[in-house]
Amino acid sequence: MAIFGIIYQSRASLAVEVDLELVLAVDVSSSVDDVEARLQRDGYLRALVHPYVIDAIRSGPKGRVAVIYIEYAGRSFQRVVADWTLLQDLKSAEAFTRRIANSPLSSAPSTSISALIDFSVNQILTNSFTARRRIIDVSGDGPNSDGRPVWDARDDAVLRGITINGLPILSSRPDPKGFAPSAGVTSHYRRFVIGGPGAFLIDVNEFENFTPALVKKLIREILDPARKLSMKN
């Protein structure tokens, strides 16, 4: 135990201090067709370099956040598209989005939000950053359908001091297999997915409206609730 404690303290002392460690988790399950996948990714590419988002990042005590971008589907599919990166200005945000843009879109069957949460927790616990606030930001158009119960994964994450926020997407488009859109996705996220200090969700009515909802969500996540940023409406 003493040896483990020394290793842990050494890792913590070398970690880069940031205002927030943020996991951006993006649903690429088979219910998301090519058009929706592109709209969703383009939303992240635009939102991450939005002036208000950059202002929010720079407003914190450290003026920087650490971000990772992950695509997920079933229990065995979690793909790191852009690994942990320090965002502190427009230049660093643009470099991060270029890495996302240059990666091919992926897809896989099923939806395991629980496996995604477990994977994301491990990414947070083993990265080279440290922050008082740690958030997993989950977007998707359907409920957990694979892996262990999502509320168990959520509760385990919350016990580690990690908050999970949700961006459920309400789509009127049938999925690529012809099935009707998922009903009650917002309720599922509210009851079983989000949790932890200050947890919230913002639902998106159609993939075409993804970008403005994401901008709003990122600003709310990045800003410390104890601080206020004066911005134009």
How would you portray this structure in words?
The protein has helices spanning 2-14, 34-47, 51-59, 90-101, 113-126, 150-159, 185-193, 210-222, and strands spanning 16-17, 20-27, 65-72, 78-87, 129-130, 133-140, 163-170, 204-205. The radius of gyration is 17 Å and the shape is globular. The chain is of the alpha/beta class. Helix 6 (150-159) links the parallel strand 6 (133-140) and strand 7 (163-170). It is built from eight helices and eight strands; from the N terminus they run αββααββααββαβαβα. The chain has one domain (28-174, 185-222): 3-Layer(aba) Sandwich (Rossmann fold), CATH 3.40.50.
Secondary-structure blueprint of this entry?
Layout: H1 2-14, E1 16-17, E2 20-27, H2 34-47, H3 51-59, E3 65-72, E4 78-87, H4 90-101, H5 113-126, E5 129-130, E6 133-140, H6 150-159, E7 163-170, H7 185-193, E8 204-205, H8 210-222
Structural class: alpha/beta
Number of strands: 8
What is the approximate shape?
A: globular
| Corresponding CATH architecture | 3-Layer(aba) Sandwich
Strand count, sense and barrel status of the largest sheet are: 6 strands, mixed
Please give the order of strands in the largest beta sheet: 4-3-2-6-7-8
Distance between termini? Answer: 53 Å
Q: What value does the average pLDDT take?
A: 88
Full CATH superfamily name = von Willebrand factor, type A domain
Number of domains: 1
- CATH C-level: Alpha Beta
Q: Helicity range of the residues?
A: 40-55%
**SSE pattern:** HEEHHEEHHEEHEHEH
